[in-house]
User: Fold this.
Amino acid sequence: TLAAYDPAFAFELALIIRDGIRRMYEEQEDGFYYITVGNENYVQPPMPAGCEEGVLKGLYRFKAAAKPLPLRAQLIASGAIVNEALKAQAILAEKFGVAADVWSATSWKALYEDVESVDRADRMAPGKAARKSWLDACLAGAEGPFVVATDYIKAWAGAVAGAFPRRPILLGCDGFGRSETRESLRDFFEVDAKNIAYGALCGLNREGKFDA
Assistant:
């Protein structure tokens, strides 16, 4: 087995490493963990209560909108791009009256495998009640457009796009780009805070809730 993770924060990394040790050393599973770790310095937040299961299954809500506003959106990001989603959350609330929740996607591979497993189980048991994937269970009641931002190619998250309650807007680093700074590179690939916020507004426009 291969477990592939892209943690955004130190507590996520600690939970993932502990799970790998448990599975491979305590339970003697054959496999290995592939963990992407960056070298960008930023403030490390405390671990949110009850996030452990979501970190290991690939998705959890990291920060809910601070207050109710007329419009809603869902921002889903991986790795260091979660910080850009948090900045976009503030932009949307302060400038556009949009209450956005920020989700951390720690493993698109885990989400994909779970979606495929649930689809197969349903296909092999016609007539029985359909199961829910972890992605579906997390996002089923979420309001507003989904904006997904990663610094990988869009297809990485796009592999589970069909499992979202509504078609997500995918932002990723497709192609080739060279830049002097992270800021300019993220601007070039349109995965920075302003582009995530813009994606949410475009999604609201698509739903007929925000004027072009």
About this structure: Strands lie at 2-5, 32-35, 59-63, 71-77, 98-105, 146-149, 169-171. The first helix runs from residue 10 to 26. Residues 15 and 52 are 7 Å apart (CA to CA).
